[in-house]
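MarR family transcriptional regulator
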Amino acid sequence: MPVPERIGSYLKRAEQALNGAKQAAVKPSGLTVPQYAALLHLADHPGMSAAALARACAVTPPTMNTVLKNLRERGLIERTPHEWHRNILETRLTAEGEAAMADADARAVRIERGLAAKFTDAERETLVELLGRCITFLEAARPARSG
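Predicted structure tokens:
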């Protein structure tokens, strides 16, 4: 008898499918999903630090540093020292970054809207509530980091 799939498998497969669809959607804009996510957060919160962006995008600080390095090399962002905290670099979109983010966002929004259209309003509300419960449980179950 086959082993039944576990709920974590469905969550992972859904995340991978969404990530794959978004990757295909933003690729014509010349971005990866992590780059798009960083630009999206910077559009809403200009001046964010790399550490804050890493937390917002749910990636590690080294990964975010690589994302920011690539975006800076392409002229999509600029990084300048904070006015009072010189060891913190503020990150902002350039005009080119704003254009790339807007193009990618229009494409990504089509994926989100298409997915949302597969559910009734009540089903979407239920799905969001259920996923919220998953997140709450899983974050609480994560062992505390020592150090």
